[in-house]
Amino acid sequence: MQHELIARDKKVNWHPYTQMKTAKHIPIVRGEGAYIFDANGKRYIDAVSSWWVTLHGHAHPYIAQKVSEQLNTLEQVIFAGFTHPVAIELSERLLKLLPQNQQKVFYTDNGSTAVEVALKICVQYGYNKGGKKNKVLAFRNGYHGDTFGAMSVSGRGLWTASFGELLFDVLFIDVPTKYNLPDIKAIVEQHTDEIACFIYEPLVQGAGGMLMHEADDLSELMKFCRSKGILLIQDEIFVGFGRTGKLFAANHLSEQADVMCFSKGLTGGTMPLGVTTCTQEIYDAFYADDKTKALFHGHSFTGSPLACAAALASMDLLLQEETQSNIQRICRQHQGFSIILKKHPKIKDVRQQGTILALEWKIAAETSYFSDIHDALYPFFLERGVLMRPLGNIIYLVPPYCVSQKDLEYIYECILDALEIQE
Ligand SMILES: *Cc1c(COP(=O)(O)O)cnc(C)c1O
């Protein structure tokens, strides 16, 4: 069956971020907890939470039950002119968990669109107030999604090269450190009159290579931007919902953003859903008798009741003591393994933020997504029943919180084995 599925897939499907000529796609027919199973019955530990979305494991019975109940009650309704209880409850409960200044929720259906909405909110906010600021400030090596706006504010590189001319102009800065903060502030200062907003991944730049920066330095930069009237968009699409060891990256920061974006783990990785939240002050700039002041954005599946039900169920699970103690246990296990890795001669750098662990392999060539080391390591781990997707020479772990202590130890062993064998 495995071979047949592969052949049928090859005939009709075009996969994301994939050179189809050389790629191979393993048919997965079932998931349970931290495991996925291929058509031959082979089991893989999902060490990357299926692209960083699965929080509580695959096919979680509680989420399945809640979505199923919703499916039999109200599967979908237009969210313009209508509302429904699950979206109301999700917004209420989500806002209670977020920094106090977050007061309104706008729904979309993935991370990229949550970012598009955040950018549009910030630019139209200025427009509605009669201003002319429309430049965006962003970090180099950032990643905010694949639609044109999200791509524009993401770090430029091989991924965006073919679209270069079509991307709008963005002011890029380095992530802050104690040393470069004065320089960064000087650059921002020079452009304050044009900058509408600053978008950033807090603490961890995921797709850029699991790059990490200090909460204090980011807080100081946020404070500076705020003092210059620049709106802050905090993209917690990857780091939200426990990944950093706290509920949100915001819980590590002493400053609060104006706009926040969520997706990925929002539904526990069950259904596509995006959320953009904002302050009352921003919302009020759109609130008027004048119809043209409204936010002009929406999607067919805005506020999908099924996705909202999944998000509520995932939130129930996330807040359980068992999940919270699992998160802390993963953090401790990662810390222990980091100490071993730091002494390893083949390791260039080890980085950890909560449940996210990244290690950088020493190689001659510059770190790149297209590095050959990926091509060697990816099958090495798969063969051993572990799904990891190295970003070039960077290996990272983003496990679902239900991963067992033993399975995590097994993954560490596989990494150490790879270090022995791999040149
Ligand atoms: C994945 C990601 C996005 C884009 O989300 P999609 O749902 O894949 O469109 C945006 N920002 C960050 C930080 C991400 O990790």
UniProtKB/TrEMBL annotation:
Keyword entries, A-Z: Aminotransferase, Biotin biosynthesis, Cytoplasm, Pyridoxal phosphate, S-adenosyl-L-methionine, Transferase
Protein name, UniProt field: Adenosylmethionine-8-amino-7-oxononanoate aminotransferase
Annotated source species: Pseudopedobacter beijingensis
Subunit structure: Homodimer.
Principal location class: cytoplasm
Reactions it catalyzes: (8S)-8-amino-7-oxononanoate + S-adenosyl-L-methionine = S-adenosyl-4-methylsulfanyl-2-oxobutanoate + (7R,8S)-7,8-diammoniononanoate
Residues binding substrate, per UniProt: 51, 143, 264, 298, 389
Biological pathway: Cofactor biosynthesis; biotin biosynthesis; 7,8-diaminononanoate from 8-amino-7-oxononanoate (SAM route): step 1/1
Domain of life: Bacteria
Functional summary from the UniProt entry: Catalyzes the transfer of the alpha-amino group from S-adenosyl-L-methionine (SAM) to 7-keto-8-aminopelargonic acid (KAPA) to form 7,8-diaminopelargonic acid (DAPA). It is the only aminotransferase known to utilize SAM as an amino donor.
Annotated positions of the N6-(pyridoxal phosphate)lysine modification: 264
UniProt family annotation: Belongs to the class-III pyridoxal-phosphate-dependent aminotransferase family. BioA subfamily.
Residues that bind pyridoxal 5'-phosphate: 111-112, 235, 299-300
Site positions per UniProt: Participates in the substrate recognition with KAPA and in a stacking interaction with the adenine ring of SAM: 17
GO MF entries: adenosylmethionine-8-amino-7-oxononanoate transaminase activity
EC primary class: transferase
Listed cofactors: pyridoxal 5'-phosphate
Compartments where found: Cytoplasm
Extent of the signal sequence: none
One Pfam family named in its UniProt record: Aminotran_3
EC numbers for this chain: 2.6.1.62
